[in-house]
## 1
Amino acid sequence: MAGQSIVTTTDEASRASLPGDGALPDLRVVALGGGTGLPTVLRGLRARLFESHPWDPERDQTRLTAIATVADDGGSSGRLRATYDHPSPGDVRNCLLALAGGDPALADVFAFRFAAGSEVAGHSLGNLILTALTELEQDFAKAVARVGRLLSVRGQVLPATTGNVTLHAELSDGTVIEGESRIASARSPIRRVRLQPVDTLAPAEAVDALERAHLIVLGPGSLYSSLVAVLLPRGIADAITRSRARVVHVMNLMTEPGETDGHTGVDHLMAVRRHAPTMPIHDILVNTAPLAPEQIARYGAQGAVPVPADVALLKALGHAVHECDLLASGDEVRHDPGKLARALLTLAYRSGSRASA
């Protein structure tokens, strides 16, 4: 129930299981976002949803859907967008790789990035392939689907829109920043972000996946440039509102310099609410595993700090808050794909399906 907290220790998380991990054979999960957060969710869910039975495209393709933002205008993606007037391929590429189930060598080729010293320096080969296929198909969504077949992805990857969109951020001082890559340079709080063109539509396939979902996952990821951005194409937020899915927000671990300086967990939540006021968020996943002092110091030197969860206030706002160990091992502060997937699917199992079959 909203307002209650489920506290899970590390040992409990490791022992927790869904009966047979096949107790929800018809479960349909949609995960939205971008950056490094969405692929993390996908890698964990891919392993949990598809490890217990042979892959069947007709049965399993719609069990896991990724909807990725296409507003990135930096790096390889930005250069290709400027040249070909296509949607950004980078976040979609990362999702395809996270769900790839075919020959690992082919995935390695798709992930290859050219080193300095040539005209293609800095480009990902996967971005170039997606761009070439978009030119051939004259349709970005069809290009993504072709690459999905090449990589034998488990599930499906859909762009949030097939238009070449630009993210605009309005700051609290009235300044407007144009371009996703410039948001990190903002030194004034972000009031609102929007897409240009403003009438950008979500693909029908993305809307259908959301309406039919049992579980919808938002985050982790950059608050404005990934999580809010993916909700902005027309049809996305409304489809989530119409669905009977359980909607889960995975709280970020760290603030991001320029984008979420000083943001608490409630600030993250309210930013999403401002941009999608009718969209429900039933559950919030919060990490409880402590960060190492050296991690805090290293990230602090870059201007990032752990996000204060504000659990009591999140519960007071009507959300079920689930606290558990979600932290990956290693030097980087990241969510662990396996722990995250187990927590999400345990939520789905405990909640039961809120969606119609």
Note: The first helix runs from residue 10 to 15.
## 2
Amino acid sequence: MKRTNKRIIWLTVAIAAMMLLFSVSVFAISKGDIDTDKTVTPADARFALRIAVGLPKGTSTDGKNTPIEFTEVEKDIADMDGDFEITPADARVILRIAVGLETPTPYYEYRLLNPPTCLDQGMNLRTNTEAPFDTYYQYLPALGHDFSELKYVTKAATCYAPGFGTYKCVRCTLTEDKEVIVPHEWSEATCISPKRCLNAGCTAVDGSPLGHTTRLGYCSRCGQYQEVLYDYYNKGIRTPLNDAVKAMQDAKTKMTLIHSDDITNKTVTLDNVIPFYKTAYNYYYAAYKACDGYPEFKELEKQIYGICQELLKIVYSGKTTAENYNNQFYNWLEITNDVIGSRNVELKKITDTFKSPTENGGSGSAVG
């Protein structure tokens, strides 16, 4: 009877031991394999160097950029020389293993004997798989409470005043009363509205409206037709440009007639055509000044400036004489044809982008 009882006792102890053995978490990691991906790489060496200089493993991705610290197991894996201190020398050893200059060290087996809790530390048992007597207990720090689960609200919060709520620890049953903060939730600003808080009952605004893009015609941001800006362009820029083209054409007609009548004796000068060019210049210059301060008119402003400089060559060319008559005439004609032809064509390419909804194909004039 006694022998039977002893057998039952030993059998019970054996079963309990087996249950304890299988109840603990067991994992094996190679020395130096800090990221536990089953191989030692230069990334592990970088991790070891971060540990050596006191940098965290990384930061959280929840928008708060909370530092993620290395665990005690990760630090243990990085301790290549077993001096319980991680230094750049350990990182160099890991790097040599990664590039094949050094033989990997044996695997270490970790058994989680007691998992850490919010208040109590846990414990690992580390064993060298090639030297079973090379073992030691590794204490794992307590996790601390994490009161991030809102159980219920006792006082509702607004954007202007905090409320109160009961928060539960995500790992245990402990609760804690804390302030409930409701930050502003901003809408995107628009052309006519600043950022506004979307939370119910909140009237907060932030910043100023973006304003319509200064592209005349339609706003490139909201698509709304900008009649006021277009009217400014139409009166301040396009009208004087069209008047300038007409004055240039009148100047060419007058100059050609004079040259035809005076082709033989050259007694009549071209000087009485200059007022036509002055008029054209004044129109172009008015349009040039109207472009100032509007970013979308920078290229148009540059093109008109070039035309004004060409016309000044005629306006300040000096008195026409019999000796310089032909040179004067052909120089002016070349400038005139260039302005009426290619230069105004370039202007039209730019001004065609500024149209009202009713101008589907443009006005058909040289510049708009």
Note: The chain has eight helices and 13 strands.
